[in-house]
Amino acid sequence: MKQMNLVICLLFLSSQLHSAQSATAPVFELITLGDTGGIEDGNLSAFLLRVISEPHYIALDAGTLVNGINVAQSNKAFKHLPVKIDNTLSSTGNILHHHIKGYLISHGHLDHVAGLLIASPDDNNKPIYALKSVNQTMSDTYFNWQAWANFTDRGLPPLLKKYQVIDLIPQQAMNLKDTQLSVTAFSLSHPGESTAFVIEYKDNMFVYFGDTGPDEVEKQGKLSAIWQYLAKQMQTKTLRGVVIEVSYANQQPDNLLFGHLTPKWLMSELTHFHALLDNKKAFKDMQIVISHMKYSLKNTVDPKVKIKQQLEQLNKLGFNFIIATQGQRIVL
Ligand SMILES: [Zn+2]
Ligand SMILES: [Zn+2]
What we know:
By secondary structure, the protein is of the alpha/beta class. The protein has a single domain, classed as 4-Layer Sandwich (Metallo-beta-lactamase, Chain A). It contains 9 helices and 14 strands. Strand 9 (193-201) and strand 10 (204-209) form a beta hairpin. Helix 7 crosses helix 8 (263-276). It is globular and about 50 Å long. Bound molecules: zinc ion (2 copies). Residues 107, 109, 190, 211 line the site of one zinc ion.
C-alpha cells in the first residue's frame, strides 16, 4: 500500500513538473546581428527572430546583415537551425536566401537599413514590411536609381521587383508570409516616424522597438499607447521578451536625446508599464534586451558598460535585462 502511494505521489509530481516546464519552455529564438546605434559599421541595429519550431526568420531592422550573419555563425548561433543545404550557396548565402523570409523596418535611418541596401544586389525575393511613411522614405531616399538601384516593386521605374513593399496599417495585425508569425505595428516618436512591432505566435508575444524617445520628452503618448495595448493583451497572452533601445548613458541631457532613451528614461517607461499590469509576475519571465547603444570614439569608459551599470543601479523592480551583443543567441 505504501509503495502504491509512493508511485501515485511520484506520478503526480512528474505531471506537475511537466506542466511547469511547458509553461516556461522557450518559444522564440532571437539572434543579434548588430547591437550598436552607430557608429561601428558592421555592427548596426539588426536582429533575427523565429519560432523555435520553424526554420524561418524575420529580420527586425537590417543595419547590418551579411557581417552580422557571419559573426553569428562564428559564435555558433545557428547551431539549432536545420540549415537548408543549397550547394550553390555558401552557408551565409543559405541563411540569407532560405531562412530570412522578410524584413520589418522600423524607420529609414541608415543605421537600420544599411545592411539590407548593401546586400540587396545578391539577396533573393522577399517582402519588406513597414509603415507607409517609412516605405515612402525608403523609395524617396534610397531605391531611387541615384543612391541605389530600385530593387522594389514601387517608386521610380524600372522596377526590379526583388522586394515586395508592404504597408503596415498601425494597430492592425498582419500575417508575415512564409512564417507562422503575425505583426502589429505601432508608431513611435523619433525624428521622422519610427515603429514598434508586436509579433505574435499563438498566445505568445514579442516586441521589437525601433528608435524612440520617452513620452515625457516627446509629449505624444506613443509609448503609453503600446504599454496599454500590451497590458490588455497580457490578460490572455504571454509577453516573452522585448528588444528596446538605450542609446546613451544618463549623463546625456534631455535636450540632446534626439528621440532616444537613457537608462533613467527606460526605467521610467517600464515602471509605467509595470503599474498597468494586473499580474506583476508576468515580468519575471520577460527578457528585456537592450539595443542601439552608441559606440564611442572617446578614450573613456565603454558606453555599454556604463549603461549596464546604470540599469542595474536603477533596477528596483527586478527586470531581466540582457545587453545585446552581436552574434548572441537568446531563447525566450
Ligand atoms: Zn538608430
Ligand atoms: Zn533613428
